[in-house]
Amino acid sequence: MRTRPLKVALLGCGVVGSEVARIMTTHADDLAARIGAPVELAGVAVRRPSRVREGIDPALVTTDATALVKRGDIDVVVEVIGGIEPARSLITTAFEYGASVVSANKALLAQDGAALHAAAEDHDADLYYEAAVAGAIPLIRPLRESLAGDKVNRVLGIVNGTTNFILDKMDSTGAGYQEALDEATALGYAEADPTADVEGFDAAAKAAILAGIAFHTRVRLDDVYREGMTEVTAADFASARAMGCTIKLLAICERAADGGSVTARVHPAMIPLSHPLASVRGAYNAVFVESDAAGQLMFYGPGAGGAPTASAVLGDLVAVCRNKLSGATGPGDSAYARLPVSPMGEVVTRYHISLDVADKPGVLAQVATVFAEHGVSIDTVRQQGRQDGGGDASLVVVTHRASDASLTGTVEALRNLDTVRGVASIMRVEGE
Ligand code: HSE
Questions:
Q1: Site to substitute for ligand 1 among 140, 163, 202, 309, most atoms within 8 A of C-beta
Q2: Considering its fold, how many domains does the chain have in total?
Q3: Are β-strands 245-255 and 262-272 bridged in parallel, bridged antiparallel, or unpaired?
Q4: What pLDDT, in 10s, does the model give residues 46-97?
Q5: What residue ranges of the chain have pLDDT lower than 50?
Q6: Claim: this prediction has a pTM higher than 0.85
Q7: 17 and 84 housed in the same domain
Q8: Domain span at residue 402?
Q9: Catalytic-labelled residue, pool 7, 106, 169, 206
């Protein structure tokens, strides 16, 4: 074994960074044996130096991340700061100064992955980011390496633990969105400002990264259609249950049937209780991958948290250190397929539409005609008269597969019917 250690600069020492430092220390001998050389924590860049960091030599702590990265003797920079800047500048500087990079930064990778990969390649460096998507769950490496000989057609996943916790709570207790969010906040699952999670931004960044890697093409954050889950109601869960379904916030990346384009989207959807993703409870994540040769694969585990995310970071650190020792680099950017990303209107799926309608002769025929005029085929219709004496009824229509554009046109036309009092909810039905 080489005795000269590989030097690691840790940028960020919060929930994840402190766990990375702890595991590097407690598992030092095993990591050295697995890598073929010891790894040494050479510096830790933090924002608040006064905070006590158990197990970390205070002499290693600095507030000057740029100077740390520019030291010239750093082999690997581990970036767990998050956000776009200064993380982006620090990573590009790290490449310029000869280091490889391990990052957990989904927002940055989703926004600037192509430029960062190009910078890594220019400097014969590695850029690994297993921790950026679904915490501890091995996903990037399986897609980049294990499935490199296969053709992935679909990636369907629960990639946000906070929203899965909230939806699971609503499903199991009948709670409304706000009540379930309050519990998630009290238990520390939801952040004080939960926007990134509940509005689907976090999941959209992960979908962009997964789609790009799975289909060997460029998928930017702006290419991902996004709807949050704040509008999901207890009534939606009751409707889902009546169909033998539950509701999940899904990230869905698909290759078109003709292989010529891809789509990526994040939105709440009904999935059958028989689908493996339906049984993903609490704050867990799971990703279902469908490919030509392997068939269906499911990856499941903790998608967030200090130690689980650090596990993914450490796995990357070992891989990058091994590459450093062998003088090689691992798999880089693979976007050769150059597939266009189709807009949401071209996505084809099934829909569950809940309408409030007048309960009088001819209304059902009128509604059915609107669906027919837009080329949307109805699978089932369920009508229930309301008990409030107002003469209205609740009409639930489930469609066969149709394009999102056709469905949008249908709903617009339904809203213009005098007999349709309101469109109570529209939910896509997936996983069948
Ligand atoms: N906030 C994310 C989640 C974890 O709830 O899954 C980090 O991506």
A1: 202
A2: 3
A3: antiparallel
A4: 999 888 788 899 999 999 999 999 999 999 999 999 999 999 999 999 999 9
A5: none
A6: yes
A7: yes
A8: 344-429
A9: 206
Protein residue with least CA distance to atom 4, ligand 1:
304
Same-domain status, 156 and 296: yes
CA dist., res. 184 & res. 174, Å (int): 15
Active site residue 106: no
Query: Cα separation of 202 and 142, whole Å?
Result: 21
| Closest-CA residue to 93 (of 114, 67, 64, 73) | 67
How far, in Å, from the CA of 285 to the mean position of ligand 1? 9
- The secondary structure of residue 145, as a DSSP letter, is I
Q: Give the CB-side neighbour count of residue 131, counting CA atoms within 13 A.
A: 29
Distance of CA 15 to the CA centre of its chain: 20
Among protein residues, the one whose CA lies closest to atom 7 of ligand 1: 304
For a substitution probing ligand 1, which of 197, 285, 287 has the most ligand atoms within 8 Å of its CB? 197
What is the CA(304)–ligand 1 centre distance, in A? 5
Q: Which residues line ligand 1 (CB under 6 A)?
A: 160-162, 197, 202, 303-304
Please check whether residue 333 lies inside any domain of the structure. Answer: no
Burial state string for 84-117 with b = 16 or more CB within 10 A and e = fewer than 16: eebbbebbbbbbebebbbbbbbbbbbbbbbeebb
Q: Which residues contact 366 (CB under 8 A, 6 or more apart)?
A: 417, 419
Atom of ligand 1 nearest to the CA of 162: 5
Q: 346-400, pLDDT tens digit by residue?
A: 999 999 999 999 999 999 999 999 999 999 999 999 998 776 656 799 999 999 9
